[in-house]
User: What shape does this take?
Amino acid sequence: MPKKKMIEKMSYEEAFKELQSVVEKMESGELPLKDSLALFERGQALSGRCSELLEEALLRLRQLTRDESGELVEVDLELEDM
Amino acid sequence: MLRPAMETLANLFSSRPVWSVGDLTRYIRQVLESDYRLQDMWVTGEVSNVSRPSSGHLYFTLRDDNASLRCVMWRPRVAHQTHLPQDGEMLDVLGHISVYEAGGQYQLYAENLRPAGEGARFAEFLELKARLEAEGLFDPERKQPLPEWPKTIGVVTSPTGAALRDVVNVLRRRFPLVTLLLSPSKVQGDDAPAGIVNALETLNQDGRSDVLLLIRGGGSMEDLWTFNHEDVVRAIAHSIVPVVTGIGHETDVILADFAADVRAPTPSTAAEVATPDRVLLREDLAFQRSDLNQLFREHLYQLRQSLKMWSTRLKLASPLAHVANKQQRLDEFTSRARTAILHRMALSQAAITSLEKTLRAVGPNAVLARGYAVVTLAENGQLVRSITQVSSGDPLQIQVQDGTFNAETRDQLNE
Assistant: This one.
């Protein structure tokens, strides 16, 4: 198997895509028990990661502007009264 | 008093008919009203003498350098106007020409008003639209699909506008997994088009955004005219990153919308169009999870079933089973052997019995019973079959049917 990315570092998209592929793999059957168990556990972890990201996500607000020299500068976007 | 000159006297007494003022005025009115060009026309000019008495009707004068025109708008039409004319304002007025007979005045009966120049601008708009359309800027094939799951959403709008807040609120509720990257720009005024073009280019250059939102809250047609600017429309069409427009307005005459990959009616809907819904994501996730559980259970069940079957087959194939099997075959053979032996023995027994019977039948007893005797030499028990075996005085044993007795040879007689 290829080297797996740490689940805790995955984006929602990555985790969900892999979760889908895990389910598909399990659907195909024909898996060694050890692999199937490992897949199942990974699937659960991926699903957990997705839920966590969904629940805890906070919208990040950034602003992109140019400084005097015309270089792009990125700063936190502050919104009043929000 | 005037005295008519001699030559005009003839005129005074000619036979021309004489009109009453009322007839003439009515006639003039009919002439004006029968010219279709005068019955539905836009007239442009500067507004003056606006008055709106308690009747609710609206009176004003339109003028330019050379002339002036009385205008009236009846109360029901006045009620339809969002904007009432002010003195000094340049306006286009739609209406028809007729005559106010009592005042002896022709005037424009106004139906509608709009800022002067809007007509020209609209014509310009149509020309630009046709030109860009011909270039293919609005072609459906140019439209890019939006990403399913954007990670970064670039936003071009004013940093202080309500549009940005609307978008932020929608994203917080709906898809907070995203990063909003604002590229600020004015969205109205003369420098707005250049600002928007610049902001779009900045986000394209930055490259992180998966989709761009070009948004602005509602406004007058004049406010929104920025989004009909050729440069803005071209910048949208040429953006590498897909663009969603959310420009609040009701009419569908914003060229930016034609050039956008997706057009949304408001800033909030633009944010919705560009993101998946967290609630739906949750459902999808729950679905995948239950699928996963179900699949795993099924897999385990299958493994168990298969295990059961193969253990049974294993048992059947084990050496123990072979031994048992051999044992059984051995037992079987043993028992068959025993049966065979017993049978053979039984047969033998039967044969013996029958032989004994035969023997008995042919044996000496039967002969003795008929009166014959068996003679043996007493000294060695030899059967005496010939006279040569005996001499005078030899002791003999004679066996008859019911016993034996001793005797002695006396005379040897030759046959």
The first strand of chain B starts at residue 41 and ends at 51. Residues 148 and 276 of chain B are 7 Å apart (CA to CA). The radius of gyration of chain B is 68 Å. The mean pLDDT of chain B is 86.
